[in-house]
């Protein structure tokens, strides 16, 4: 006779028993948090999202469906009650009885016939499947058949139709394939599993070889989370199919995730609880932590002990201190990630956390997708995160014109920021994706007699190309990675000095031939940014600096060729040494979190980002320009000054000083000298720089 263990996809009898009898403090804490979450949910009939902020509309029922249903189903499997059974039955039948047009998604999805699935369709498949698998006894036999038929005809059929109509490799393909696969496993349709498992396995090729992801941090998590759900739906009942899926494709990306995390602390408008911040290039959000279930899945399923240990450490650092932190209604779809219904069974196997320090993650490093990082120390004072040189993108999409842009953090404050992204249906989305709103350069290719700074910025503006061709599947084989035009020139660290360089000139196209940027971080307090720009015809360079003013607390002064920024206890003093002239700030945007609908919590207001620009006074064919940046406690900032003559630039506060020398006009040979006389040289050969520490003789 078959046991219950062989029937359930997501929870075996032994796992259930272990959860219910566990004396482990972490398991008990998350079990209590799940019960509390579900109990609070029962107070609201149906699938209405959590209460919106004052003045904001209620949201569609599609968005929280997967989270609400799966959480309640797991709670019912562990501790069934009549009240919970009634809620699950009512909510699931509501979805099952909606017309197929509703399974397509909200109004902004394509509703032309024959209906095709979208992200919402896959999420409904996940949620309904969890209920049928974990709480199927809440239905009569006839109701179970009705829900199963809806899952098949309105869920799987629409997801498969999308897969048949589209052939590009990106997160959407993984989400739709996962939705169809999980539903097929729930219904026991092994014929569809035979079709869908290889299709989902292809999604391993969307990740970069080192586990990073080309679209963005959050879309990489979204795709990996979908692959995790598919694997977990197979591993207990269909292990042969599960073995076709490559956990390591995204599991090896834990190093990238760990490098991308910044800190936890409260955020204005989000309550008093500390919240995770992360590096947010492309369509990503500053409020980010990897999905909890995904981290535990890698921790217990990965064969790589380093990546498994990092995954468990990330869960320990970003979830264990705050198991009840919300909002939970957009945990995956809205990308305000949370832990979910699989956390409890995945907490049962033993897994050991390993911190980045113990793992030996480098302080200066880069990844295949172009992200690069410089830190003074783990848990130190300064982080420089760069979108620079990389390899071809295996899963391109959702890109910004942000190459050679960077995020600057000091004393746990983001000083120079990426704008992030808001609702795709906002008119400003195109602008917040453009080069001019990032910490990089734009170019004016026409010189006109325009008077005001803002008029000059409206001349013919040359920005990076960020809309790339899709990577297509041809006869089931992925095409070559997509070249974005960003070239890595160096990523090295010697002692207190780190250097990263990339050239992104080809991302702009003609007439730009070269835009090579070098970042040199010296200790915790000094950053030099060196730009070498060349063009085939004279162009006017504009340097853009986006200051974090999301809460209105930035104190900014921009006298002459300087920019001073203070936020709480952190300060930055930037010196421009080129021929550019600055104007008054442009009121830009800095977003906390993405939302599927406009005017929601997390969307920045005008002035949440203060955009400062230095514009050259006349066009040129070539130039080398240095920006010197001092970082310190806000009250110490006035002590830092820049001394410069010829091609030597010294940042000093008296006790400390660092001198950068540009030793030739092409910036292919540089030196950096500390106040103690230690010297480093940076020299270019065949377009690649090397960093060498000079040791005194004797």
UniProtKB/TrEMBL annotation:
SUPFAM superfamilies in the cross-refs: Chondroitin AC/alginate lyase
Location in the cell: Periplasm
Organism expressing this protein natively: Larkinella humicola
Residue intervals of the Heparinase II/III-like C-terminal domain: 380-593
GO cellular component, one term: periplasmic space
Gene3D superfamilies in the cross-refs: 2.70.98.70, Chondroitin AC/alginate lyase
Location (main, coarse): periplasm
Name of the protein in question: Heparinase II/III-like C-terminal domain-containing protein
Recorded superkingdom: Bacteria
GO MF terms held by the record: lyase activity
Keyword Lyase applies: yes
């Amino acid at each position: 006779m078959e046991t219950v263990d062989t029937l359930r996809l997501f929870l075996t009898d032994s796992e259930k028993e272990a959860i219910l009898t566990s004396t482990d403090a972490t398991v008990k804490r998350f079990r209590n948090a799940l019960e509390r979450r579900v109990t609070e949910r029962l107070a609201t009939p149906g699938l209405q999202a959590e209460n919106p902020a004052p003045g904001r509309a209620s949201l569609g029922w599609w968005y929280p469906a997967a989270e609400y249903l799966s959480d309640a189903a797991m709670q019912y499997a562990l501790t069934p009650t009549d009240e919970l059974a009634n809620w699950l039955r009512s909510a699931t039948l509501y979805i099952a009885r909606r017309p197929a047009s509703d399974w397509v998604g909200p109004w902004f999805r394509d509703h032309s016939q024959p209906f095709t699935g979208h992200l919402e369709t896959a999420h409904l498949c996940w949620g309904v499947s969890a209920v049928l698998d974990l709480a199927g006894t809440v239905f009569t036999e006839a109701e179970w058949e009705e829900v199963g038929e809806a899952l098949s005809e309105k869920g799987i059929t629409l997801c498969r139709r999308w897969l048949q109509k589209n052939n590009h490799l990106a997160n959407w393909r993984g989400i739709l394939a996962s939705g169809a696969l999980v539903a097929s496993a729930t219904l026991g349709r092994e014929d569809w599993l035979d079709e869908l498992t290889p299709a989902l396995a292809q999604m391993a090729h969307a990740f970069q070889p080192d586990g990073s992801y080309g679209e963005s941090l959050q879309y990489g998590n979204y795709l990996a989370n979908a692959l995790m759900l598919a694997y977990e739906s197979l591993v207990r009942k269909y292990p042969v199919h599960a073995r076709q899926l490559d956990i390591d494709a995204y599991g090896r990306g834990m190093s990238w995730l760990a490098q991308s995390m910044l800190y936890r602390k409260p955020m204005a408008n989000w309550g008093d609880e500390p919240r995770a911040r992360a590096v947010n290039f492309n369509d990503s959000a500053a409020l980010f932590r990897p999905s909890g279930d995904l981290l535990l899945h890698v921790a217990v399923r990965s064969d790589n002990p380093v990546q498994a240990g990092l995954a468990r450490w990330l869960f320990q650092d970003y979830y264990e201190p705050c198991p009840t932190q919300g909002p939970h209604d957009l945990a995956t779809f809205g990308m305000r990630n949370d832990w979910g219904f699989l956390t409890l069974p995945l907490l049962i196997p033993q897994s050991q956390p390993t911190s980045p320090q113990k793992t030996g993650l480098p302080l200066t490093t880069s990844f295949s997708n172009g992200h690069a990082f410089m830190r003074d120390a783990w848990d130190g004072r300064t982080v420089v995160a760069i979108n620079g040189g990389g390899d071809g993108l295996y899963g391109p999409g959702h890109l910004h014109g942000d190459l050679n842009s960077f995020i600057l953090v000091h004393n746990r404050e983001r000083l120079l920021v990426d704008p992030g992204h808001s609702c795709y249906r906002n008119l400003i989305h195109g602008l917040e994706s453009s080069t001019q709103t990032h910490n990089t350069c734009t170019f004016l290719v026409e010189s006109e007699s325009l008077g005001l700074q803002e008029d000059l910025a409206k001349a013919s503006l040359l920005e990076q190309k960020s809309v790339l061709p899709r990577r297509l599947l041809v006869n089931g084989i992925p095409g070559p990675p997509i070249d974005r035009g960003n070239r890595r020139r160096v990523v090295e660290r010697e002692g207190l000095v780190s250097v990263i360089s990339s050239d992104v000139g080809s991302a702009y196209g003609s007439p730009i031939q070269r835009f090579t940027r070098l970042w040199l971080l010296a200790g915790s307090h000094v950053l030099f940014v060196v730009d070498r720009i060349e063009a085939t015809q004279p162009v006017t360079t504009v340097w853009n600096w986006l200051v974090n003013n999301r809460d209105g607390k930035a104190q900014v002064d921009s006298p002459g060729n300087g920019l001073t920024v203070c936020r709480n206890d952190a300060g930055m003093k930037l010196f421009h040494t080129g021929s550019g002239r600055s104007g008054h700030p442009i009121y830009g945007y800095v977003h906390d979190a993405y939302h599927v609908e406009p005017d929601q919590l997390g969307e920045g207001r005008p002035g949440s980002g203060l955009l400062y620009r230095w514009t050259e006074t006349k066009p040129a064919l070539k130039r080398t320009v240095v920006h010197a940046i001092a970082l310190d406690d806000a009250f110490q900032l006035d002590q830092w000054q820049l001394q410069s003559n010829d091609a030597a630039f010294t940042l000093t506060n008296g006790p400390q000083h660092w001198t950068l020398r540009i030793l030739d006009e092409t910036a292919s040979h540089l030196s950096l000298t500390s106040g103690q006389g230690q010297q480093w040289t940076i020299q270019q050969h065949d377009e690649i720089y090397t960093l060498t520490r000079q040791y005194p003789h004797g």
